[in-house]
Hints:
Shape: elongated
Number of strands: 0
Distance between the termini: 56 Å
Number of domains: 1
Helix content: over 70%
Radius of gyration: 18 Å
Amino acid sequence: MEPHDDWADWKWLCKAAGVRDARLHDARHTAAILLLEQGVDISVVQEILGHSTLAVTKRYTHVTSRLAREAAERMSRALWDVPDDDEAVTAEK
């Protein structure tokens, strides 16, 4: 695939979808973060993005507040067996 063809397809897709113009590179960053937020392992994200090393993939991503909150909740359950919000609501019913 020619790099310019990829770029042209991306620009066409943004316009056809009615979304703001964005760099294709930005979409790769967004995809990486969304995959991590869905619980996809970072090594799988690395493979999807075609990065040769995990270090490159880590530069593409950052910890979102959602990921940090989920990590804290998991640690809380691991240490104190505290139910998450969904379990607490179910237990109250």
